[in-house]
Every structure is written in structure tokens, then in C-alpha cells.
Write a structure and sequence with these properties.
The complex is a heterotrimer of chains A (93), B (227) and C (199). Chain B is an alpha/beta fold and 227 residues long. Chain B is built from five helices and ten strands. The longest helix of chain B has 13 residues. In chain C, the strands form two sheets. In chain C, strands 1, 4, 5, 8, 9 and 10 form a six-stranded mixed sheet that branches. In chain C, strands 3-2-11-6-7 form a five-stranded mixed sheet. Classes of the chains: A mainly beta (93), B alpha/beta (227), C mainly beta (199). Chain C: This is Molybdopterin-binding protein.
Chain lengths: 93, 227, 199
């Protein structure tokens, strides 16, 4: 088994263009194996041609993000739910 | 290499967060890389530590091509999971592999800027290939030399060549390296592990083996070319 | 387009008339992966072709090896902007693989071990334009580059040359593959710089 070079922390930037809240702390549930994990802990392949986040449990594709010059494409087809913590403390200077 | 960017209306950031830097060539070609912020914000000044990657088109440009006064596109701060919040009361174990020390340095510096006596104690286990690879050496040594009340201890791991006279022979990170600075799993520290994928996976496995709860271990993996 | 970063050029691009627009030359062979490298033994390996009426043709590794193969020297162009000239491959032409396959399909969806897919017009797989390649530079194709066998369609961006190929689904309608579902071009001609949908 090969391990990818990245994890879900790398998705923070591209996903910040889509979501008002940080998604790396969000919990996703895998449609394939049912396990739940923070986006930050996904095994991430990329960054080119796009970011592919796979389940650390079963390696299924959970989410994909592609940034083209004029659009952000998001696929969440591999997850049954995404739970985003809504009361994150704001950044402290 | 330290890069200080002047970012108007910077909203501030949490220790551990990163930014994405995007460079655009005249023909529209773009290259984007993530860099950890290495220090607490000073007003609108954001400090990045960039390690030059052989044949790295972005790190080489930032090191050699960028002049004072030039503008780059910045996205951030981003990332809300691999962060330390000043309100966290528990002790902290930082485990760095190579340039993975950068976001951990941001945490250490943030802790140092607030009242150290009121802050939880920090331990840093820092793995490098050889002595010359230690980033922030003087600052780390100074931090670790502060009176014990200041609560920072440093344990260096050399994987290829240890300094003359080091009691620890060169070699990969082991269980006792993670115990050496003084935490046991019973102290329930939050562990922040950052480095290349292979390093992070083996360090996290060692921590779990020592009894640290998986939910107390936060990891960030840098690609092979580093941040 | 974003504002130009003063002084930034990126890697030198387009200095060779064999380089499509926006490409730079590399001597390396970069590895791009969307997932773990599947380990497939020759004993377990199989190639299938399924037509629009459900007919299925299969080849074992031994059967593929019995087919006539070509050695070809081609230029390859990755959508991430690197190009590599004069790469040498050995493989079985898709003309040979598809010779006895009856179909009215206009499109192909190529499937890989590990779940990757990519789509292209069937005519781009024919007439000496595509191979099931199993050797690179005189050696067995290494797993990280798609071994035991990958598709080789060098006239299109290299994401169409699916690594770890396992099957070709022939379709009457185009059906987007792994990257084509997410913004990449359905055809991907490097000379027309068809990187993204709308290019």
C-alpha cells in the first residue's frame, strides 16, 4: 500500500473558497465503510490535477476539489454527511 | 528563509494555520503552494518560513526572485484543526520532522508571548537529519534555557549524524524520544505532529503505542517537497 | 486571470516546436496519482472490453502477451504542464484489441484497477493512436507509472492514458470520467490547450 504525500489539512485553502467555516475540522462519514473522521485526517493525493481526499479507513474517495482558472469544482459523493463545527472561536491576534 | 508579508487588514491567525501563496506568470500559468505561518501576527505583518526545495519553482522564486515591495496573491489564514488555542489548558507535546517544525514554532512563539507562568507546559521533540538542519536553533535553545517555570523543554533527534558527544546516537525517532522530554500518556497532552508523511505516520504510531489517545493526536503531513 | 507576480515566469515553457502551448520540457517522469498504487499480479490481471449491448470480451495477461505488440516512440504531455519527448513504449495496439469487437459505439470509458476512469471518443483509440502499454524504456512498466499495463494515448493529455487499465466500456453517449466530472476537458487536445471544460 502506498501512502499519499498529503492529508486533509491541505484542503483548507481550496475549501475556504466554498465554505464560510473551516472544513478541515468538519467530520465526514464515509459512504463506503461508515467510519467518521475529520477532513484534516483524510489521505490526500495531489495537489495536481486536483485534490483527492480518501477515507483513512477504507481508501474510498470521499471528496475531491479541482481549482480551474475560473471555477472551483467540488465532489462530496463519497460522504453521507458533513458535520461542520459552527462555533469555532475567532482567530486571536 | 523567513519571509515577512505585509497584508492589509490581516484578520489575525491561530498558531498552526497556514496560507496558500499563488504566483501568476504573464502567460497565465499559476503555481500555488501552502506555507505555515511561523509566528503570531504583528499587526498586518505575516511571517512565513520557506524552505528552499531543489528545483522548486515557487520556493526558488520566493527566495531569489521576490523583491521587497513586490506583491503576491495570498489566501488565508486557513486550517482550523491543526491549531493550538491559547485557552487550551492541557500540556502540549510537539513532534516535528524537518521543516514540519514551522507551524509548531508558531505555537511555541504564541505561548511565549502570553504569560508563560499561566500557560501550559510545552515539550518539543524535533527530528532532523544532522545538526545543521535545525531551524530556529538559537531561539529554541534560548526558550529551553528559560527558568523551568517557563515550561519549555526541547529534545533533538538526529537521524543521520548526531553532534559530537551527543548521548543519543543518530537514528530514527523511537519511543523513548517521545518520553524523553517528560510527558507520559497519563499527562494527557495534546500532541501535534508535523512533518513528511512517513515521519508523521511512524510518530503517530509510536504515540498510540505509548498509550496516547488517538483523539489527542493531531497530525499534519507535508508532501515530499516540503512546505 | 489573477494579477501577474512581478518577475515570475515559472519553468521555461514553449521553446521547442514540439512543445504544445503552455508546456515545459522535463527529463524526469513525474508521478501523479489520485489514489494508492494497486498491486495487480499478472496471474490476476485481466483486460475486458464491454460493448453497448453488454457483450464482454476478456484477455488474460498470457493472452495479451500472445498478441502482436509494437514498440513506439512518442511525446507525452501532462495537463500539469510537463512534457516529455521521445518516450519509448511497447504495447498492444488498440486496433488489435478491438479488431473482433462488434460495436456501434462512438465513445469509450476506460476503467482502471483502483477505480480511476477516463472518457474519450472511440475513434481516438483506433488507427494506430492508442496502445495497452506494458513496457517503458525497455523495461517492465513500473507500478507507479501504471504497471502491469496502462493505456497510452499520446496525442491527448496524459490523464487520458489511464494507469492500471483493466477495462474499456464502449458507449453510445459520452460519459465523463474521474477528472472530466470535475472540470477537466472531455477531449483534452494539448495542441488546442483543452485543459478544462470550456477550453
Amino acid at each position: 500500500m502506498t501512502t499519499p504525500d498529503w492529508d486533509g489539512n491541505l484542503m483548507a485553502g481550496p475549501l475556504s473558497e466554498l465554505f464560510a467555516l473551516d472544513v478541515t475540522a468538519a467530520v465526514v462519514r464515509c459512504r463506503g465503510c461508515g467510519s467518521a473522521t475529520e477532513v484534516a485526517t483524510l489521505r490526500v493525493y495531489g495537489p495536481d490535477p486536483g485534490l483527492v481526499g480518501r477515507c483513512p479507513g477504507c481508501d474510498d474517495v470521499l471528496l475531491r476539489v479541482v481549482r480551474t482558472p475560473d471555477a472551483v469544482w467540488l465532489d462530496l459523493g463519497g460522504v453521507t454527511s458533513l458535520r461542520v463545527p459552527a462555533e469555532l472561536p475567532g482567530p486571536s491576534a | 528563509m523567513t519571509l515577512v508579508l505585509d497584508v492589509p487588514d490581516w484578520p489575525g491567525h491561530l498558531p498552526g494555520q497556514h496560507v496558500d501563496v499563488r504566483l501568476t506568470a504573464p502567460d497565465g500559468y499559476t503555481a500555488t503552494r501552502s506555507y505555515s505561518v511561523s509566528a503570531p501576527a504583528r499587526g498586518d505583518h505575516v511571517e512565513l518560513t520557506v524552505q528552499r526545495v531543489p528545483d522548486g519553482e515557487v520556493s526558488s522564486f520566493l527566495a531569489d526572485g521576490l523583491a521587497v515591495g513586490d506583491a503576491v496573491r495570498l489566501r488565508g489564514p486557513v486550517g482550523g484543526w491543526f491549531v493550538w488555542r491559547a485557552a487550551q489548558p492541557e500540556p502540549v507535546l510537539l513532534v516535528a520532522g524537518g521543516s514540519g517544525v514551522v507551524p509548531l514554532m508558531s505555537m511555541l512563539r504564541a505561548r511565549t508571548e502570553q504569560d508563560p507562568d499561566a500557560s501550559p507546559p510545552f515539550r518539543l521533540v524535533y527530528s532532523v537529519r544532522e545538526p545543521d538542519d535545525v531551524i530556529y536553533r538559537d531561539e529554541l535553545v534560548a526558550l529551553a534555557a528559560l527558568p523551568s517555570g517557563a515550561g519549555v523543554r526541547l529534545h533533538l533527534v538526529h537521524t543521520r549524524r548526531a553532534p559530537d558527544g551527543d548521548v543519543r546516537p543518530a537514528g530514527r525517532l523511537r519511543e523513548d524520544d517521545l518520553v524523553a522530554p517528560g510527558w507520559e500518556a497519563a499527562d494527557a497532552p495534546t500532541c501535534y505532529v508535523c512533518g513528511p508523511t512517513g515521519f508523521v505516520e511512524s510518530a503517530a504510531d509510536l504515540l498510540v503505542g505509548l498509550g496516547h489517545a488517538a483523539e489527542h493526536i493531531r497530525t499534519e503531513r507535508f508532501g515530499p517537497s516540503g512546505p | 486571470m489573477d494579477f501577474v507576480t512581478r518577475g515570475f515566469q515559472g519553468r521555461p515553457r514553449g521553446r521547442d516546436d514540439r512543445l504544445p502551448p503552455g508546456q515545459y520540457l522535463t527529463a524526469d517522469f513525474p508521478v501523479l496519482s489520485a489514489g494508492p498504487t494497486p498491486g495487480v499480479d499478472h496471474d490476476d490481471w485481466e483486460l475486458w472490453v464491454a460493448t453497448e449491448d453488454g457483450t464482454r470480451h476478456t484477455w488474460s495477461w498470457a493472452e495479451l502477451m500472445e498478441l502482436p505488440s509494437d514498440t513506439v516512440t512518442v511525446d507525452i504531455h501532462c495537463v500539469t504542464s510537463w512534457s516529455k519527448l521521445d518516450t519509448e513504449w511497447r504495447g498492444v495496439s488498440l486496433d488489435t484489441v478491438l479488431a473482433d469487437v462488434e460495436t456501434a459505439a462512438d465513445f469509450a470509458l476506460v476503467h482502471s484497477y483502483g477505480g480511476y476512469t477516463t472518457n474519450l471518443p472511440l475513434e481516438d483509440l483506433l488507427d494506430g493512436q492508442a496502445w495497452v502499454a506494458f513496457e517503458f524504456d525497455g523495461d517492465d512498466l513500473r507500478p507507479e507509472h501504471g504497471g502491469p499495463a496502462r493505456l497510452l494515448v499520446p496525442h491527448l493529455y496524459f490523464w487520458k492514458s489511464a494507469k492500471w487499465v483493466r477495462g474499456i466500456e464502449l458507449l453510445l453517449e459520452d460519459s465523463p470520467g474521474f477528472w472530466e466530472q470535475l472540470g477537466y476537458h472531455d477531449y483534452g487536445d494539448p495542441w488546442r490547450e483543452q485543459r478544462y471544460q470550456g477550453d
